[in-house]
Amino acid sequence: MKKWAVVISAVGLAFAVSGCSSDYVMATKDGRMILTDGKPQVDDDTGLVSYTDAQGNEMQIKP
Predict the structure, then answer these.
(1) Per-domain residue ranges for the chain?
(2) CA dist., res. 32 & res. 40, Å (int)
(3) Which portions of the chain are predicted below pLDDT 70?
(4) What pLDDT was estimated at residue 24?
(5) Strand order in the sheet with 41-42
C-alpha cells in the first residue's frame, strides 16, 4: 500500500510540474525582465519576437 502511495504521489507531482512550466522570462538589452505566457516566437516576416505577456496581451519587441 505504501508503495502505491509513493507512485501515485510521484505521478501527481510530475503532472503538476509539467503544467506549470510554460512561463518564460526574457531579458532585454536595456535590462528589463519580461514574463511571457508560453515560448516567444520569432516572426519571420518582421524579424520581431512575438510573445503573450502575463496579462494575455500579444506583444512584439525587436531582438
Answers:
(1) 22-63
(2) 15
(3) 1, 4-7, 9-21
(4) 92
(5) 41-42, 49-52, 58-61
